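Quick start: what a row looks like.
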Amino acid sequence: MKVTLFATCLVDMFQSNVGKATVELLEHLGCEVNFPESQVCCGQPAYNSGYVEESKEAMKRMITTFEDAEYVVSPSGSCAFMFHEYQHVFKDDPVWGPKSKALSNKTYELTQFIVDILKVEDVGAQFNGKVTYHTSCHMTRLLGVRNAPMKLLSHVRGLEYTELPNKENCCGFGGTFSVKMTPISEQMVDEKVQHIEETKSDYLICADAGCLMNIGGRIDRNGKPIKVLHIAEVLNSRS
């Protein structure tokens, strides 16, 4: 099966280890992975800030970039959802409307792709440690991916899982929300870190790079010993 990787900006610029783990995991599962270098930002930051027209050029660039892909897979539920949003942006456009809908129909978040398309729940991973999992807002509430991550984590050997209290609560990132509403965002992420500490976990796992960056930054700033990992890194672990 041929998979085209939509890496996302945060993975490209800050979390290359997540991109590496994603590729290795997909290849381990028998996929042929390619990475189109013409991909850019999906336009979500500008779009969510109300700059719809200004974000359309980036959207068109991405639609063209992934037009020939068989499957598009991303290690970010938030960015994967943005590809699904394109069809609403271009719904009245006779050219870009059909193209954006075609892109939506073949775009998947990583765990969603593994469970729903590859039909795999046990990837053969082993990870020794106490972990908890943060459910990101875009991935669960908008993209609708809720069960796939937990199905995959439940088969990881050596992993000791504790459910995160108030796991459905936002971490306070929200893209530009954390910049525009910093005091509120700060209180939200502090509450999230508090709940993570309550689980007595050594690791926080998430499937969205933005949430990991936000929570991980707060954990580091507060000097907490908890490590943050993307779910791809855990699923790609063999020892």
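That is the whole record. The chain has two domains: 2-116, 122-235. The mean pLDDT is 95.
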